[in-house]
Amino acid sequence: MAKPRSDQLFRLIKSLSKAEKRYFNLYTSRLTIGKKNNYVILFRAIDNQQEYDEKSFEKFFKKQSFQTPSAIAKGRLYEIILKSLDAFHADSSINVEIRKLLHYTEILFKKSLYEESEKMLLKAKRIAVQYEKYNALLEVLNWEKKLMEKGSYAGNTLEDLANQLTADESIIEKITNYSEFWNLKSRLFILLNKQGKARDNAELAAFKKIIDTTLLKSENKALSYESKYLYFQIYSAYYFGISDYKNSYAYIKKHLKLIEANQNMFLEEPNKYFAVLSNMIYLCSQLKKFNEIPVYLGKLKAIAQNVSDDRTEDLEIKLFATTYSVELSLYIQTAAFEKALLLIPIIEAGLEKYHDKINKVRAAYFFFNISIVYFSVGNFSKALSWINKLLNEKSVDSSMDIHCFAKIFNLIIHLEMGNNELIPYAFKSTMRYLEKRNRIYKFETVFFDFLKMIQKAANAKAVRASYVTLRNDLKTLSNDSYEKTVFEYFDFVSWAESKIEQTSFETEAKKKLIAKPSLSAV
After folding, report:
1. How far apart are CA 391 and CA 386, in angstroms?
2. Which long-range contacts link 340-349 to residues 24+ away (Cβ below 8 Å)?
3. Are residues 57 and 111 in the same domain?
4. 480: helix, coil or strand?
5. pLDDT, tens digit, for every residue of 89-100?
6. Of 60, 88, 116, which residue sits at a domain end?
7. Could you read off the pLDDT of 497-506 as tens digits, one per residue?
8. Residue 12 belongs to domain spanning
9. Residue 15 CA neighbour count, 13 Å, CB half
């Protein structure tokens, strides 16, 4: 095994649960001769560190008088931890169960116990067929060929060989089919992540180019449950990307129906279910289907409870990111800013706990929405602090929509704080930034025209007139199919209204919701 990077052993040890650490101690006790267990000693020395300190570890290692060099010892410890994890999680998934049965098949085959080997292989095949594990089925078919060959094809007919070839071709076709759907889905999501939603004809054409394929002409082109999952995901994401939420909602419904009708197929990947549920909640909020949101949010919370005893850290991170981003967004959309404030300490704790593992784009949306919450309650210094966290996050591609709107929101915060001396510089910087990335659309043009106007305003009357012009232009843009996505990031119209009416943003945001259904049940 290759030598792990200096901090890899530390990172692996710190990722272990209490149960996994207990099992490691039991596992290594079998490898110990005498009273001294060097593996446990090294393990504890590293586990006791809060931050990895190579020099401190080397000093400790020299004092122990181990016979092997530290690099080799760490490499062996890393491998032993992985072996103990393999044993601990021996029955943790369908794939692991199939691999175990295939290993038993191989052991029995090599001992010339062919009948027993074939029975073990049949068990593996039944599970692989039941759960559509096609890559594992390829290996099953290879073992069937070996079992045919071992007796010089005694008892086999030409029809058996033809059936074997048909089975091979069918499975390869399904694997290829899945790969093609996965490739389409991934191309679509790269476009969505980099570009954001379509905001002109050229960007719309880029989305259409991806889905303009015979593979997507019919659901019947998807040859497995996993491929059908991708088929619905592709279309729901496509319609989301072109801001056609009604069609996106229709495909998300089909997506949910597929999962809920075949829960055994998705049992080991609950993150797929709650990702679709969170998307559905967002679409319901945009389509004003507020009465449906408690139903889907209830299902989302039920998943968290159902997997409480079998959570991996990866699942913990996804549950945290999904559930709290959904709740925070709902509170913002319904102007429930006091409730949103109560979530922030919990979100901060999660961001701190998972800081190096949480998806950076997801973290960026947390930063943006937390900034909006503080802005909405008039705490502009905290709003500025959180938007700066986003703008200073180097791992977030600066051409992404979230980064572009953070730049614009940063200008609004400075306007509210009265930082008039900073605004001309920030304005020019943002203009250069967006021009360089070809990110100036109708909204950006309207907003920058407003900034030019307000900087020239000689008195309060002229300032108010600037906001009236902005408000009117924004209301027009909110009906533009390409520009309406802008208003999902922030309620720019209510902000302009608050400046005209000399009220708070929170007051104007709540005025819009007086006639809307309550989300108190959420």
Report:
1. 9
2. 340/373, 340/376, 341/373, 341/377, 344/370, 344/373
3. no
4. coil
5. 877 788 889 999
6. 88
7. 999 999 999 9
8. 8-88
9. 17
Q: Is 398 contained in some domain?
A: no
Q: What is the pLDDT of residues 143-194, one digit of tens each?
A: 999 999 988 888 888 998 999 999 999 999 999 999 999 999 999 999 988 7
Count how many Cα atoms sit within 13 Å of the Cα of residue 101 in the half-sphere of its side chain: 23
Q: Residues with Cβ < 8 Å from 289, sequence gap 6 or more?
A: 249, 283
User: Where do the H-state alpha helices sit in 131-157?
Assistant: 134-150
Cβ atoms 463, 454 nearer than 8 A: yes
pTM for the whole structure: 0.77
**Cβ atoms within 10 A of the Cβ of 328, count?**
22
Residue 239, H or E segment: helix 225-241
Residue 17 lies in a domain: yes
Per-residue confidence (pLDDT) for residue 5, from 0 to 100 = 54
Residues 23 and 71 both lie in one domain: yes
pLDDT over 90 at 54, yes or no: no
Query: What are the backbone dihedrals phi and psi of residue 236, each rounded to the nearest 5 degrees, phi first?
Result: -65, -40
User: Total domain count for the chain?
Assistant: 2
Output the pLDDT for position 153: 84
State how far the Cα of 71 lies from the Cα of 400, in Å rounded to an integer: 42
Q: Which of 115, 139, 156 is the last residue of a domain?
A: 156
Confirm if 118 and 106 have CB atoms less than 8 A apart.
no
pLDDT, tens only, 461-493: 999 999 999 999 999 998 888 898 899 899 999
Within this chain, do residues 122 and 150 fall inside the same structural domain, yes or no?
yes
- Region for residue 351 given its phi and psi (left: phi exceeds 0; alpha: psi -120 to 50; beta: otherwise): alpha
Burial of 80 (0-12, 13-18, 19+ CB in 10 A): middle
Sequence-distant (≥ 6) Cβ neighbours of residue 169 within 8 angstroms: none
**Residue 237 covered by a domain:** no
Q: Which comes out higher in pLDDT, residue 437 or 402?
A: 402
Lowest-confidence range among 27-31, 223-227, 238-242, 274-278?
27-31
Specify burial of residue 226 (Cβ count, 10 A radius: 0-12, 13-18, 19+).
Answer: buried
- Rounded-to-integer distance, Cα 56 and Cα 186, Å: 44
Does residue 58 sit in the same domain as residue 74? yes
Per-residue confidence (pLDDT) for residue 193, from 0 to 100: 81
- Residue 332 falls inside a structural domain: no
